[in-house]
Amino acid sequence: MKQVKSNHTSSRKEREKVARQQEILKAARELFARKGYHNTTLEEIAQHAEFGKGTIYNYFGSKEELLYGIIDHLTRDVVALAQDSMTTRGGAREKLTAYAKAMIAYSRANSDVFRLIMRETDCFRSEELDGKVKQMRARVRRVREIIGGAIKEEIRAKKVKSLDALKLAALFDSMVRSYCLSRFGKFHYLENDEIDDSVALVVSVFFDGVVERKVKG
To answer: Which one of 36, 143, 165, 167 is CB 3.0 to 4.6 Å from 152, fit for a cystine?
Structure first.
């Protein structure tokens, strides 16, 4: 019985630890988005999170680690979006449509983080956190592997040209991400029907191209 109680206590402490980390990351995200990464201090983050500065150091060794923690959550979410999208019924077109729609909607909801990443690209050259950067890049590759799996099935079925599925996946993912980047400033005003139109455009260009094909008759 004592062991059960100990495990319960440990589980509760772990949940409290995770909740506290999330509160700190939330405070950092809000301040980074509002003031900019370089103009925000750990003291301000601690105050905004209503913790002491020492508490911040219990979870994150530096302000840079906080930034990477925010991006770490984002990359995990994107992998999950890709995985969920591949459960959509239909072929590659339907699955990639689901991914593009989920990604654009997610980018709209998290436009503050995406703009932050764009502004603070110089922060991603830290040798100290090189391992974490590699991990995030590995997740980007994982997303493309997931998308590539759907394309590969279409290639086997001879519905798509016999090209490198991973390169095609990287091309599609880049199209979606580039579209997101180009619309960051307007994401808060994008309606759901506008997202649908945007997705239809990206998917159509990828699968059908932009050349008007004349029907022979």
So the answer is: 165
Phi, psi of 126 (to 5 degrees): -80, 125
Give tens-digit pLDDT for 137-173.
899 999 999 999 999 999 999 999 999 999 999 999 9
CB half-sphere exposure, 13, CA atoms < 13 A: 6
Domains observed in the chain: 1-61 (1.10.10.60), 63-208 (1.10.357.10)
**C-alpha torsion 190→196→202→203, nearest 10:** 160
Place of tokens 């008007």: 212
Note whether 107 and 187 are within 8 A (CB): yes
Apex 158 CA angle, 172 and 201, nearest 5: 30
Percent of the chain with pLDDT over 70: 84
* Rounded Cα distance, 26 and 194, in Å: 29
- Kindly give the residue spans of alpha helices, DSSP state H, lying in the chain: 2-35, 42-49, 53-59, 63-85, 92-109, 111-119, 130-156, 165-182, 192-208
Residue 106: count of CB within 10 angstroms of its CB: 17
Q: What pTM does this model have?
A: 0.83
